[in-house]
């Protein structure tokens, strides 16, 4: 029996990452994944269980203009559909929190669709507070 571990994602994880992102409704390409994984502003960690990826979290750190504070944003978080509710997502949140602290961030933030009620409950259960609204405009 293998050991569960959190590790940095790599290009060989591309197909499994693509499969996980499909569960969130996103289609991606190997080229996009490679670009994202090579971007040193971002960190993507995976929950690897016996050589099967059961979850991933992607993060980006950026300065908040008015204050200069560093913010760590979760840009993707997904757990394999049939493995949800087993603590994988919460483990990945803790990894993100530690990553944010390590990089001097004052805040860990996440956005989610208004229609993703289960995700909203999950984030609240993991200590996130609803503090603002996000508006978008396609360009």
Give an account of the 3D structure:
- Residues 4-139 form the N-acetyltransferase domain.
- The structure is a single chain.
- Helices cover 31% and strands 28% of the residues.
- The chain has 139 residues and is α+β, with helices and mostly antiparallel strands.
- The chain has one domain (4-125): 3-Layer(aba) Sandwich (Aminopeptidase), CATH 3.40.630.30.
- A hairpin with a 6-residue loop joins strand 3 (52-63) and strand 4 (70-79).
- The protein is globular and about 45 Å long.
- The model has no long low-confidence stretch (mean pLDDT 92).
Q: Approximately how much beta-strand content do the residues carry?
A: 25-35%
**Mean pLDDT over all positions:** 92
How are strands sequenced across the largest beta sheet?
Answer: 1-2-3-4-5
CATH A-level architecture? 3-Layer(aba) Sandwich
Shape label: globular
Give me the count of strands: 5
The largest sheet is: 5 strands, mixed
Assign a percent range to the helix content: 25-40%
Keywords: Acyltransferase, Transferase
Protein name: GNAT family N-acetyltransferase
GO molecular function, one term: acyltransferase activity, transferring groups other than amino-acyl groups
InterPro entries: Acyl_CoA_acyltransferase, Bact_Acetyltransf, GNAT_dom
What is the secondary structure topology, with strand pairs?
Layout: E1 4-8, H1 14-23, H2 30-38, E2 42-49, E3 52-63, E4 70-79, H3 88-102, E5 107-110, H4 117-125
Parallel strand pairs: 4-5
Antiparallel strand pairs: 1-2, 2-3, 3-4
Describe the structure concisely for a colleague:
The protein has 139 residues and is of the alpha+beta class. It has helices at 14-23, 30-38, 88-102, 117-125, and strands at residues 4-8, 42-49, 52-63, 70-79, 107-110.
């Amino acid at each position: 029996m293998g050991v569960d571990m959190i590790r940095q994602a790599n290009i060989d994880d591309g197909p499994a990452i693509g499969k996980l992102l499909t569960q969130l409704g996103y289609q991606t390409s190997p080229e996009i994944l490679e670009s994202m994984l090579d971007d040193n502003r971002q960190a993507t960690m995976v929950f690897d269980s016996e050589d099967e990826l059961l979850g991933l979290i992607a993060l980006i750190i950026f300065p908040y203009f008015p204050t200069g504070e560093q913010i760590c944003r979760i840009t993707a978080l997904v757990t394999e559909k049939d493995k949800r509710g087993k603590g994988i997502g919460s483990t990945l949140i803790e990894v993100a929190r530690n990553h944010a602290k390590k990089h001097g961030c004052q805040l860990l933030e996440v956005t989610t669709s208004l229609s993703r009620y289960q995700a909203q409950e999950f984030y609240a259960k993991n200590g996130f507070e609803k503090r603002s609204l996000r508006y978008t405009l396609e360009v």
